[in-house]
Structures are given as structure tokens and as C-alpha cells.
Write a structure and sequence with these properties.
148 residues; alpha+beta; 2 domains; three-stranded antiparallel β-sheet; Ribosomal Protein L9, domain 1; Ribosomal Protein L9, domain 2; 4 helices
């Protein structure tokens, strides 16, 4: 089933993308929730016209995302976590902590757009922040032992 997304959906696509999904997922979840519409010929024509009219707005969003990516690439974070003597962390450092540290620096990023493996040991890691369709930034961060 082909559908047109009305909003960004993680691991599926971005707003106004035409994607193929299984019939049940589209019919029972996406369409009733108002997250998508069926991609009929008339809906595709309406979408094309809307995209043509919004081209300048999309270009502005792209340039803002590119500027944010430049800022994120220049950032290096230090995150303190409780750790055992062997360097293992009690728990892990996830995208939530990275988003909080970025917020402290004045860079507001949705935590759902941060992709990374959870850091379970002390050391250096990188996180990828998906900003706009194909534009993404990387954030280097170091996990250090919390001073007691």
C-alpha cells in the first residue's frame, strides 16, 4: 500500500514522503491516527502542487538544518556518570543525556532524532543527530567517571 505521510515518523519517513507500507499498518494505524493518507493519483497531484508552493520554505528549513549540523559537528560534550573501578558505568548513557547536555549549551535537539549506541563504559563516543531528511550532524562526547 502506498501512502503519503502527514508528519515525520521515525524509521519510516518524513512529512510529505510517499512510502510503501504493509496494508494492515497503513489501514489500521497510520490512516486512522491521521498520520497518513492513501496515495491516490489526485492526492499525489495535490502533494506535488503543495510542494511546489512550499519550495522556498523547504529551502529555508534545509539551510537551518545545515547550520545546526555545523554547530553540532563543532561540539564536544563531557558527560559524567557513576562508574565502577573497572570503567563500567552503572546503567548507561543514552540519547536522553546527550540531548540534556546539548540543551545546556543552548542547542535544542529532539532526543528521538539522536541515534547512538548506549554508552556502557567510560570513553569517547559519537552520536548522529538527524536534522532534516538527508542532513545530519555528529556530536562527539566523552563519558567520564563522576567525582564523589
Amino acid at each position: 500500500m502506498e501512502i503519503i505521510l502527514k508528519e515525520d515518523i521515525v524509521n519510516l519517513g518524513y512529512k510529505d514522503d510517499i512510502v510503501k507500507v504493509k496494508d494492515g499498518y497503513g489501514r489500521n494505524y497510520l490512516i486512522p491516527q491521521g498520520k497518513a493518507v492513501i496515495a491516490s493519483e489526485s492526492a499525489k497531484k495535490v502533494l506535488a502542487e503543495n510542494l511546489r508552493q512550499r519550495a522556498h520554505k523547504i529551502e529555508r528549513l534545509r539551510s537551518e538544518a545545515a547550520a545546526m549540523a555545523e554547530k553540532l559537528n563543532a561540539v564536544s560534550l563531557t558527560i559524567a556518570a557513576k562508574a565502577a573501578e573497572g570503567g563500567k558505568i552503572y546503567g548507561s548513557v543514552s540519547n536522553i543525556q546527550v540531548a540534556e547536555e546539548l540543551a545546556k549549551l543552548g542547542l535544542e535537539v529532539d532526543r528521538k532524532s539522536i541515534v547512538m549506541k548506549d554508552a556502557k563504559e567510560l570513553g569517547e563516543y559519537t552520536a548522529v543527530v538527524k536534522l532534516y531528511k538527508e542532513i545530519q550532524g555528529t556530536v562527539a562526547f566523552t563519558v567520564v567517571a563522576e567525582a564523589e
